[in-house]
Design a protein that fits this description.
Number of helices: 9
Distance between the termini: 36 Å
Strand order of the largest sheet: 1-2-4-3
Strand content: 5-15%
């Protein structure tokens, strides 16, 4: 990915070859189908190279916006506002019928007009089916049920809104603490030396406990409740955002 600036403004450029070309084009088609205002997409494919150009969104990612609390020097009220804004953006996405499929704190940009979700390669909705090469995104942020679906081998895997909410909560935990939400050490999981597939298998068992932390305890208790709930009882993004707002 590149950032390019010219007389007409600043844009993001993505390009890919091989499987990456198909993924790049898929994201371009997703963004066109979403039809978000202010998000024009230009794309092309030639001689095995696919590329797309979209507007560059100015502002920090959720990861960067929460850096202060992660480093013990941030404004907790501002951090809570960032989390609420993220929940609102995911709520709007789901209300439009879309599932993102790869929510990470680096994939949400806090602009002056609200949060914009980026890296939408794996997003899908009814009529725009999920990708056959989707493997769940970053394993540490996968819900147990999505991890199980990926490892079951049936394709395509279709992430659901509840999976996005799990990833949202796990990503907030990670961005606030700097640590994964699951305590792999407590479960004797050598996370640095196992494959992504093995990690998904472990996550699918639900036997890894959550870490303990003293950072923003009220917020992370809400994230923990979302992470521990079975999918059918997991809060929606809207419910999670309201809970954070009421608890702030």
């Amino acid at each position: 990915m590149w950032k390019a600036t010219g007389p007409s403004g600043t844009v993001e450029i993505k390009a890919g070859t091989g499987e990456g070309a198909a993924i790049t084009l898929r994201e371009a088609h997703v963004l066109k189908a979403m039809g978000e205002p202010g998000r024009d997409v230009v794309m092309d494919r030639r001689q095995g190279l696919a590329w797309m150009v979209t507007p560059w969104f100015e502002g920090p990612s959720t990861w960067d916006a929460l850096r202060g609390v992660r480093e013990g020097r941030g404004d907790e009220s501002a951090a809570l506002a960032c989390v609420i804004q993220l929940c609102e953006a995911v709520t709007q996405l789901h209300a439009a019928g879309w599932v993102h499929g790869d929510l990470q704190p680096q994939h949400s940009i806090h602009t002056k007009d609200g949060v914009r979700l980026i890296d939408c390669s794996w997003a899908w909705r009814r009529g725009f089916e999920p990708s056959y090469v989707f493997r769940g995104g970053l394993p540490h942020l996968l819900s147990p049920e999505l991890a199980a679906s990926v490892e079951a081998g049936t394709r395509p895997v279709a992430p659901m809104p509840a999976d996005d909410v799990y990833a949202l909560a796990a990503g907030v935990w990670w961005a606030v603490t700097g640590a994964w939400p699951l305590d792999y050490d407590a479960a004797d999981i050598p996370v640095s030396s196992i494959s992504a597939a093995q990690l998904r298998e472990v996550i699918a068992t639900r036997r890894v406990p959550l870490c303990t932390t003293t950072v923003m305890p009220s917020l992370l208790q809400m994230m923990a409740a979302a992470l521990l709930a079975p999918s059918e009882r997991r809060p929606t993004a809207a419910q999670l955002g309201r809970a954070v707002g009421l608890g702030s």
